[in-house]
């Protein structure tokens, strides 16, 4: 009945009546996302009627009411086929100021129409394949970039920027060709980076360093939403950057990484919005070539170093809170480098682990990012390893490595996670922090937890990975050295010596038990419930017969050489 009444007024009524009936329809169905199939034909006709109203000279308020109802109806994919035409798309482009003219955004009264038109386009393009094809034909991506350039430095039209960016994200998500067009033809990388700079109000103190006001106000909700949409669009634009990175683009990627560092060090209006902002920043950092991630850390100036030391010295002992804050700040400095952004990433990773769900989507991006940063940048690796709750020098080995609440304990638990991707990246992160040395990894995790990684890397017999690291030696604590002879290599923790069960057996009993074990293993092997495995010369696992034959070949070759 709602559709019938609205359709009747839209077809025959004047602008005021149309506005009233559509406003009532919008208020009633604002939260409607599932529609009755019986009224499908009526909704199609209502859409067609609305488009006919939009081409007329009607008041702005009437246009807004028409677009609000169109946005609600466009949630239903089934009705979009007949109404998604080139003519109707051009109507929406004109209302959204995406047509070819050079009109500036000066009339504030038009802003609600622009925003609602962009919302309609987001729904229609996302839900209609025909609209997606028409977007390519109408060169919608270029028009969106042009609109962004008109409003990139104007904060009072954040809603327009936000939905422009969202539509750009949807287009680049659905069409790989548009990603390439945005990246190279439309210069989307610097444009979207400038949008982020504007949202964060960045003031540069050096080529890749920005001023951070830790006591400043949080981002407004509008600025946060704009930044999140820009980060998502940038992710699509740069999704293959690590494959095709050219030296000429290095500067632009470094600027973007510096903006993302700033993003990590600021907060949004709420804790949830801050996490969403940082999550999208982490995803985008994963696309940045690893050689450009060095801007995440920056050297302290002489003034900052002197100021930090003076702050600690000047604070009286009774000012415990301020002293703790200053000491916390000093722990984010390593080897003369500011590690605040890396500390934020580490805290973000721990929060995602503590959530206990959606590890593949929520945890693996930040773990992968920290792994690559640690592999490529020595200062980052050493800072992370030296953190008290990550891989500190071992002293207490009475508990298993997976038992406890430190980051190390949590990561070791993930090494046996059911999700293969999660367990691999958790193990890889710890392996890199241990400079890809098997003996160092086993010290912190135990052989049982590390077996999967070592088998995949062909390192079950020991050794180290393929990457080069500095040769500075890790020193064991006296507590660890004293406990080492009694550490169970499989579980990685201290165990009291257990009595040997065969010490009290006679020789006949030992032989009987040995043959019993041999017969059990033989039965399991013949029934293919168990397959004896061995190590090949390269350290990988293979069936025992094949491993023995390879060693035989090596011995024969050695004998021939002699």
UniProtKB/TrEMBL annotation:
Chaperone that specifically binds and folds nascent G alpha proteins prior to G protein heterotrimer formation. Also acts as a guanine nucleotide exchange factor (GEF) for G alpha proteins by stimulating exchange of bound GDP for free GTP. The keyword Transcription regulation does not apply. InterPro entries: ARM-like, ARM-type_fold, Chaperone_Ric-8_A/B, Gua_nucleotide_exch_fac_Ric8. It is found in: Cytoplasm, Cell cortex. The keyword Cytoplasm applies. This is Synembryn. Its main location: cytoplasm. Belongs to the synembryn family. Gene3D superfamilies: Leucine-rich Repeat Variant. It comes from Apodemus speciosus. Interacts with some GDP-bound G alpha proteins. Does not interact with G-alpha proteins when they are in complex with subunits beta and gamma. Keywords: Chaperone, Cytoplasm, Guanine-nucleotide releasing factor.
């Amino acid at each position: 009945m709602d559709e019938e009444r609205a359709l009747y007024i839209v077809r025959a009524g004047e602008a005021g009546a149309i506005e009233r009936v559509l406003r009532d329809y919008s208020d009633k169905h604002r939260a409607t996302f599932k529609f009755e199939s019986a009224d499908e034909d009526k909704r199609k006709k209502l859409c067609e009627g609305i488009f006919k109203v939009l081409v007329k000279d009607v008041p702005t308020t009437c246009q807004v009411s028409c677009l609000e109802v169109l946005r609600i109806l466009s949630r239903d994919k089934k009705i979009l086929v007949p109404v998604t035409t080139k003519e109707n798309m051009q109507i929406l482009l004109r209302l959204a100021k995406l047509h070819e003219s050079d009109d500036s955004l000066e009339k504030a009264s038009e802003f609600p129409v622009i925003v609602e038109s962009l919302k309609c386009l987001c729904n229609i393009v996302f839900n209609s394949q025909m609209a997606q094809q028409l977007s390519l034909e109408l060169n919608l991506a270029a028009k969106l970039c042009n609109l962004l350039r008109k409003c990139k430095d104007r904060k009072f039209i954040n809603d327009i920027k936000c939905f422009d960016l969202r539509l750009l994200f949807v287009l680049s998500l659905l069409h790989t060709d548009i990603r390439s067009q945005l990246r190279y033809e439309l210069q989307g990388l610097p444009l979207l980076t400038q949008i982020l700079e504007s949202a964060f109000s960045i003031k540069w103190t050096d080529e890749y360093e920005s001023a951070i006001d830790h006591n400043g106000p949080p981002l407004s909700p509008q600025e946060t939403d704009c930044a999140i949409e820009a980060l998502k669009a940038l992710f699509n634009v740069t999704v293959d950057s690590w494959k095709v990175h050219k030296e000429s683009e290095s500067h632009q990627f470094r600027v973007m990484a510096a903006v993302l560092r700033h993003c990590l060090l600021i907060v949004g209006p709420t804790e949830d919005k801050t996490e969403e902002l940082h999550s999208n920043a982490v995803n985008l950092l994963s696309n940045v070539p690893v050689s450009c991630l060095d801007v995440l850390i920056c050297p302290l100036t002489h003034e900052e170093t002197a100021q930090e030391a003076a702050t600690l010295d000047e604070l009286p002992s009774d000012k415990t809170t301020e002293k703790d804050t200053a000491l916390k700040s000093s722990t984010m400095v390593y080897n003369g480098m500011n590690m605040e952004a890396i500390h934020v990433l580490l805290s973000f990773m721990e929060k995602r682990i503590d959530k206990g769900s959606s590890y593949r989507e929520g945890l693996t991006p930040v773990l992968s990012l920290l792994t690559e940063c640690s592999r490529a940048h020595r200062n980052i690796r050493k800072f992370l390893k030296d953190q008290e709750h990550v891989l500190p020098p071992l002293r207490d080995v009475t508990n298993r490595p997976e038992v406890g609440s430190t980051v190390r304990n949590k990561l070791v638990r993930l090494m046996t996670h059911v999700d293969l991707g999660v367990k691999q990246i958790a193990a890889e992160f710890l392996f890199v922090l241990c400079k890809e040395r098997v003996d160092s990894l086993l010290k912190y995790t135990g052989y049982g937890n590390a077996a999967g990684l070592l088998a995949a890397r062909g390192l079950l017999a020991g050794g180290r990975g393929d990457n080069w690291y500095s040769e500075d030696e890790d020193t064991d604590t006296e507590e660890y050295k004293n406990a080492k002879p009694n550490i169970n290599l499989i579980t990685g923790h201290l165990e009291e010596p257990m009595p040997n069960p065969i010490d009290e057996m006679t020789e006949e009993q030992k032989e009987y038990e040995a043959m019993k074990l041999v017969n059990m293993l033989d039965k399991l092997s013949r029934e293919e419930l168990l397959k004896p495995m061995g190590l090949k010369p390269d350290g990988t696992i293979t069936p025992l017969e094949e491993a023995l034959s390879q060693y035989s070949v090596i011995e024969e070759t050695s004998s021939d050489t002699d």
